[in-house]
Design goal:
binds heme C, single chain, Cytochrome Bc1 Complex, Chain D, domain 2, globular
């Protein structure tokens, strides 16, 4: 029991560094957020983690909208994120208009749950 408690304390210490609320559980996602998760998995997941705070090729998108700024220092809002998706950023390739407006809206809805 003591061991379990210290394990728990350690986990909270590890995951609690940023003091952000956890992402919305997958089983609670709305249909739109689910659709957005599929868009994410298809277009972003090879370079970004979504539900763990570990960088891949790019920064983790966990808690993206729960902090005032994106990793670059730009404000964390839909306009900036959409701009990043469409125009890319440094090593991140531009998707241009590869995503439809609906797919983009779904994707943003999912990112808001992280
Ligand atoms: C080929 C790899 C790759 C793919 C695919 C990719 N990204 Fe990125 N992304 C990156 C890298 C690398 C960065 C860091 C860019 C920098 O600031 O130098 C980044 C940065 C970002 C940022 C932070 C921008 C900022 O201003 O700090 C966001 C948000 C983002 N990506 C979202 C997405 C989304 C959403 C998708 C899917 C539509 C996606 N990315 C697909 C590699 C990728």
């Amino acid at each position: 029991m003591t061991r379990f408690v210290s394990f728990l304390a350690f986990s909270i210490f590890l995951t609690g560094c940023k003091h952000l609320p956890p992402p919305k559980p997958i089983e609670q996602l709305t249909p739109q957020e689910h659709a957005g998760r599929a868009v994410f998995n298809e277009n972003c997941a090879r370079c970004h983690n979504d539900r763990i705070d570990k960088p891949l090729h790019g920064p983790s998108l966990l808690g993206l909208y729960k902090q005032p700024y994106l990793p670059s220092g730009a404000p964390a809002n839909d306009e900036r994120v959409t701009h990043t998706i469409q125009h890319g950023r440094n090593m991140m390739p531009a998707l241009g208009d590869r995503l439809s407006p609906e797919e983009t809206a779904d994707l943003l809805a999912y990112l808001h749950t992280l």
